[in-house]
């Protein structure tokens, strides 16, 4: 039965009911009739209209039932609720379209990641809340809090986090993370604030610095470290990241970080339940490598909105330019939008293998940038074949033709068919730096200084 016919029948029934009630009250005295406002026909008409409107709203609600909040329980142990925000709504009343809104929110989220204290970042991206009010993250929330990402092109989302007074951003159905379940002691698949700080610190250690970081941990120089050595150096490492420096011990509503950040399921995974185990170099290096790989996998799953095992050329382009400086981002996004109208990229899909290979290239950016700048200086132009050969021979990374075509399209600053190597390298360098989020002091400042002070290389101006 349609909502309109149901509404009509309900209205007629209510009016008939009211007439019967009104006729039965005619015999009453006029004084009692006037003293009882509910017997007045005007009040009856108001009741009919209000009831009809309520029924009309009910039948036209997208979920066909009332929801007073988005706090529907997700599991029974422990009870979890989605963070509340305004319900979904149609877009007809919005002053700006979703494309514009998504860019505005992306800029907001980018600044939030780079300049806000970790408590505020966690509060924005965390998607779950316990009955006690504690905010928790899913693994994909952690990825979005660390990596700048656009909403998937096939979704209707306009942002990645939660804002009071804004409609629910929607849900992305990413598969559970087997990696994070390895050290999830309560098997809820969620990340607390203190664990978030811990992971952000670990992600600040770039792969090129894995061994150096471990040797710094290994004060006894025996190739292994114990739990206390690990905790002390993690505290030191955290003090050299922006998130760690601004960490206020979770002093915000919904954040519980009373216990040490260095205690939790991860430490138990590395050192055993009794905490007396020893962590070997190879296990530590592999763990951090796996952590970085998991973030790459979660980013791909984010863009793979319909679980097709591939993403569109536009989504891949978004993942590349998302780390660009805000002053250059607008022009790069215009190049991304052009992909939708270019027949060369209409049916192009990027697999996870291609996506991961490009992520590997970012990790080896310094030797790769030296190779392409040196070649361009001698030869004058860098062709697509030269680009692929540099990635393969210098970095051991295989790039597909589709990936190279998208890169050349995005970073063809002069629209002459050639790659703007400076712009390309600058965007990739921003990605690695923003995830590490170093402050210019201590060991991270020293590593950053070493990265920047390559004055003898043709690319030195890029890292200044």
From TrEMBL:
Domain of life: Eukaryota
Domain EF-hand: 205-240, 399-434
InterPro entries linked to this entry: EF-hand-dom_pair (IPR011992), EF_Hand_1_Ca_BS (IPR018247), EF_hand_dom (IPR002048), MICU1/2/3 (IPR039800)
An example Gene Ontology molecular-function term: calcium ion binding
An annotated GO cellular component: mitochondrial intermembrane space
Localization terms from the record: Mitochondrion inner membrane; Mitochondrion intermembrane space
Name of the protein described by the UniProt record: EF-hand domain-containing protein
One Pfam family it belongs to: EF-hand_5
Native source organism of the sequence: Glycine max (Soybean)
Sorted UniProt keywords: Calcium, Membrane, Mitochondrion, Mitochondrion inner membrane, Repeat, Transit peptide
Gene3D superfamilies recorded: EF-hand (1.10.238.10)
Single GO biological process annotation from the record: mitochondrial calcium ion homeostasis
